[in-house]
TrEMBL record:
Organism: Actinoplanes xinjiangensis
Gene Ontology terms, MF aspect: DNA binding
Organism lineage string: Bacteria, Bacillati, Actinomycetota, Actinomycetes, Micromonosporales
Source organism superkingdom: Bacteria
Designated name of the protein: Tetratricopeptide repeat protein
Record key words, sorted: TPR repeat
Length: 1024
């Protein structure tokens, strides 16, 4: 049962779905009967059958297809339903609103849901196309959603056309609406043929109208141009068609016909089918005039075009073209202008045409329109022409050319075009790195806009001013721009503001808020904006989703960026390719990520887009450094190029990349300098995300474990405050991997790693989850179950040690747990048969060998891993991870959790502790006394962990698991009387009496063998 159905059930007793055929009403009702609690009937079958219902037996009655009944029959059915028990649920469905008398007769008030509640969302449409028809193109899913409005049956027809028939986006609507196609036939028989006469008349008129406004339909009816019955009938039928799902509306907008239905009706009209006549001239005049007066000039021009009136259409475009474009009508304006001969286009109409081409992504076409006008001395100085032409170059990344066109002429006046010219100039200056000049020009634009008082000019000037502002001041400018754009009904500028706002929120690391703003921008841009703005909005939404860990959603948005860019002929795919690459990098898909980064870099180079180039280069750098075989030369080239290309706002990213390369090459001072510079640059530019990334580098290159921990704690706090929970968890994993991490930090790191794996993240910086180490813990020593040293994830081969004594030196230092061992004692332990004065030099040689083994690249100071001072020689356990130390740390953490009552968490830690104990410490040195202390301590905490696990399993009723732990304990110590007793008690409790008797006998034999008292048999009866 869907969540929507659950909400309905909480709302009342009687529920009714009203929607046209194909919206899924029957499927929804049948699901209500799947659990056997309800009975499914068609309305006709229910009336035809005798229906005796014992009062206690009826829980839910489901009745479908009420429209098959006449009005009197519907009311009769309602009376029958009213006799059901008071606690019975009634679920009904109809293809259109029912007779008012039916609702009045139903028991209680009915809760109605319509087509809008049953329609598929965009994500659901994409899933249907992908899973049922093999259509994975995200942009095709958007087109299907747009033409079908999510009508489930129509989505299926579209999927079949795209999948089996191979139709592309251009042929989509024709493939499902041309006469004779399955969808057109189904719509004619199941939808249009079902409509009452008044609704059919309104549908005929609605084919010519978009939007289908209530006031317009009433006006047409009052003028005798629309006959749907009595004068108020248009409103009745409008609302009826809306409830049934033939008319759909976006929030705040008047309804329109579902495009697929409109196309089928259009074909029927052209074929001369009955009831689909061509609208009269008076109808066209009235509707076009109404549209023009009520803020719908694009609808007026389109209606005039369809009516074959090119002169009136051209006049409408010339007068209202800017308003049409501001409302997002670029594609429609371009289409309408194709019918107007070149020689009939005025200067104003040419400006509208060029601007429309720019806004639809056809930069080359726009320049072809503007070029002859710019060559005309009488026109070339026009501010309106110059800013429009400059915006084309700006869109293409040709900022110097845009700046040249935006140079104010000597005769600059105080028009709106002059403000827009200055705003464009400010933007070009900012993109060229001349921020102070940009701020001055933006201030001039803002002053001129305020004096002029035009909302459109104010919006453009505030956007320009926001480019050079930061923090609260930037937010103030964007808020003012949004208010002005809304007053001007300039939807395109509204989206521009939202895009800028989302970008700022992402830079400020305010990701949940950024996603809300970006989603609003995407929703608005999808219906009414140029593809360039849609690309920007999708990029922002994808970026926010990526930071929030919604990787699948992020990748779909980035794929749409690429798809929209390619289809519209825009050179804007680079940001989408970067996003796809970054998603895959964060998920640990190294090779896929590398390929996508390289494509993004190539695309960014082609248009000189540093805003994408620098992040793509830095991302590629990290990918090249990850994994077992880092490509240092290629990583260095990528990082250095990023540093050369980075504008000030992106410099922290580049510095971090250079720092990682230096660290990988062993140039620790360079890495530390770059890390410090990145932190400073990030704090200066107020880039919280860059600061967190820089702090992770600081932690990796720090020679002080406390400093490394502090840096990672700050990074984790930044990410968590930003809502970037995956990044915060990554910082926790890195913190838990530090050699000095305590049991609580290691436990938290493991929990964080599990959360990341649940999201699909398989690796962090090339290291697989959940186990492994990263650059912050390059040296790991294993002594439990055997001795092994690994550096950068690779075991040290035996020949690298050069002698057995070098390995023994490391073992002794590990056994002393970081405490200094005097040199004389070491010489005696390593060379017991030689005179101490003869072995001093040998110890110095061994110390050099060990340091080389642990730091072959010589990236750290000499005493980073092994210290040597007057007190002796010691292992720095703050810079080396030792499995025995982790075991003891986990044991202490588990004990604390047990004392505080957090048994569930304690059990997780104890299970991990048991996994970590691979065998006794220094099992390859069984007779060395120096190994005894750590060996016995590690063994003792492991045994205590097994006892605690047995007790916790027993308390949780997991008796088989408890038996397993107890048997292990007896295999280690056959004389532990407490374990024997617990094993017998658990087996008796589990009903395993034969095994309990055998365990009891073993207990008795063990006790007799050491002359200890034997137990009594009462324990076998469970009475001990």
């Amino acid at each position: 049962m869907t969540e929507q159905t659950r909400r309905l059930r909480r709302a009342g007793r009687c529920f009714i779905y009203v929607a046209a055929a194909g919206y899924g009403k029957t499927t929804t009702l049948e699901a209500l009967c799947a659990d056997g609690a309800g009975t499914y009937w068609t309305a006709e079958a229910l009336l035809a059958a005798p229906y005796d219902h014992p009062q206690a037996a009826v829980a839910r009655v489901v009745v479908d297809d009420l429209c098959a009944l006449s009005g009197p029959a519907q009311r009769h059915l309602a009376r029958e339903l009213a006799t059901l028990p008071a606690d019975a649920e009634i679920w009904l469905a109809a293809r259109r609103p029912l007779d008012p008398g039916f609702y009045a007769t139903l028991p209680g008030s009915a809760v109605e849901r319509g087509a809008a509640d049953l329609a598929l969302s965009l994500d659901q449409v994409a899933r249907v196309l992908r899973e049922e028809h093999g259509v994975a193109d995200a942009e095709l899913a958007v087109q299907v959603y747009d033409v079908t409005a999510g009508w489930p049956a129509l989505v299926q027809f579209a999927g079949e056309a795209l999948g089996r028939q191979g139709a592309g986006p251009e042929e989509l609507l024709a493939a499902i609406t041309d006469p004779g196609t399955p969808a057109a036939t189904w719509i004619g028989e199941q939808v249009l043929a079902e409509q009452p006469e008044g609704a059919a008349a309104l549908l005929d008129a609605a084919v010519a109208l978009d939007p289908v406004a209530e006031a317009l339909c009433l006006g047409l009816a009052d003028a005798g141009l629309l006959d749907t019955g009595v004068p108020a009938a248009p409103l009745h039928w409008l609302r009826s068609l809306s409830r049934a799902g033939l008319l759909v509306a976006r929030p705040g907008a008047a309804p329109r016909l579902v495009p697929v239905v409109a196309a089928v009706l259009g074909h029927r009209r052209r074929a001369g089918c009955a009831g689909t006549g061509v609208p009269s001239g008076a109808f066209v005049d009235f509707a076009a005039s109404w549209y023009s007066r009520n803020g719908h000039p694009t609808a007026a021009a389109a209606l005039l075009h369809r009516a074959g009136r090119p002169v009136q259409c051209a006049a409408m475009l010339a007068e209202h073209g800017d308003r049409m474009l501001a409302a997002g009508g670029g594609n429609e304006v371009v289409r309408l202008l194709r019918s107007i001969p070149e020689e009939q286009r005025s200067f104003d109409l040419r400006l509208v045409h060029g601007d429309a081409l720019r806004m639809t992504g056809d930069a080359a076409g726009a320049l072809r329109v503007f070029a002859p006008l710019l060559r005309d001395p009488a026109r070339s100085g026009d501010a309106g022409l110059r800013w429009r032409a400059a915006m084309v170059h700006y869109m293409r990344g040709e900022y110097a050319t845009a700046l040249e066109l935006c140079t104010p002429s000597a005769g600059t006046g105080r028009t709106v075009d002059d403000v827009l010219l200055l705003a464009c100039r400010a933007g070009a200056l900012m993109m060229l790195g001349r921020s102070s000049d940009s701020a001055a020009v933006a201030a001039d634009a803002l002053h001129l806009a305020e004096s002029h008082g035009d909302d459109r000019a104010k919006a453009a000037a505030h956007i320009a001013a926001a480019l050079g502002a930061v923090g609260a001041r930037r937010d103030e400018h964007l808020a003012a721009a949004l208010e002005a754009a809304q007053h001007a009904d300039d939807v395109v500028t509204v989206v521009r503001v939202l895009v800028n706002r989302a970008e700022g929120l992402i830079r400020d690391a305010r990701y949940p808020e950024a996603l809300r703003v970006a989603a609003r921008a995407v929703h608005t841009a999808e219906h009414s904006c140029p593809p360039g703005l849609l690309v920007a909005a999708l990029s922002n939404a994808g970026d926010a989703l990526l930071r929030l860990g919604r990787y699948d959603d992020a990748e779909r948005h980035f794929e749409r960026v690429v798809s929209v860019s390619h289809r519209a002929g825009l050179s804007r795919a680079a940001s989408g390719l970067w996003g796809i690459a970054e998603v895959r990098r964060q998920l640990g898909r190294r090779e896929q990520s590398r390929t996508a980064f390289e494509e993004a870099i190539e695309a960014a180079h082609a248009v000189a887009d540093t805003q994408v180039l620098v992040p793509a280069l830095t991302g590629l750098t990290r990918v090249l450094l990850d994994g077992p075989d880092p490509d240092l030369a290629a990583a260095r080239c990528a990082a250095e190029e990023a540093e050369r290309a980075a504008p000030e706002i992106l410099l922290p990213l580049a510095l971090v990349a250079v720092g990682w390369v230096a660290f990988a090459e062993g140039a620790l001072p360079v890495a530390q300098q770059r890390a410090a510079a990145a932190v400073t640059a990030a704090r200066t530019s107020r880039r919280a995300d860059c600061l967190a990334n820089a702090l992770e580098l600081v932690a990796a290159v720090s020679t002080d474990t406390a400093d490394a921990m502090a840096a990672l704690r700050e990074a984790e706090a930044i990410w968590r405050a930003a809502g970037a929970i995956p990044a915060a968890d990554r910082a926790l994993v890195l913190l838990g991997r530090l050699p000095g991490a305590d049991g609580a930090q290691r436990s938290t790191a493991k929990t964080a790693a599990r959360r990341l794996m649940d999201l699909g993240v398989s690796a962090i910086d090339g290291t697989r989850l959940p186990a492994g180490q990263d650059r912050s813990t390059p040296v790991r020593i294993r002594v439990l179950g055997g001795f092994e040293v690994s550096v950068d994830g690779r075991p040290v081969p035996l020949p690298a040690w050069r002698s057995r004594q070098a390995r023994s030196l490391v073992k002794i230092l590990v056994a002393r747990r970081g405490r200094p061992v005097p040199r004389l004692e070491l010489r005696e332990l390593l060379w017991p048969d030689d005179e101490p004065h003869r072995t001093a030099h040998r110890l110095s040689v061994l110390l050099s060998v060990v340091r080389t083994v642990l730091d072959p690249a010589r990236r750290w100071p000499t005493d980073h891993h092994v210290r040597a001072d007057l007190a002796g020689i010691s292992l720095d356990t703050g810079h080396v991870a030792v499995d025995a130390e982790e075991l003891l740390s986990d044991a202490a953490h588990a004990a604390l959790l047990m004392r505080t009552g957090d048994r569930a968490h304690a059990r997780e830690v104890l299970v991990e502790l048991d996994r970590l104990y691979r065998g006794d410490a220094f099992s390859d040195e069984p007779y060395e006394e120096w190994a005894d202390g750590l060996r016995e301590e590690a063994r003792a905490v492991w045994l205590r962990a097994l006892r605690d696990l047995a007790g916790l399993s027993r308390a949780a009723g997991e008796l088989d698991q408890a038996v397993t732990y107890l048997v292990w304990l007896l295999a280690i110590d056959a004389y532990d009387e407490r374990v024997h007793r617990a094993l017998v008690e658990v087996m008796v409790r589990a009903g395993r009496h034969g095994e309990a008797r055998r365990a009891f006998d073993r207990w008795c034999r063990s006790m007799r063998s050491i002359d200890a008292p034997v137990p009594t048999t009462t324990i076998l009866a469970g009475r001990a």
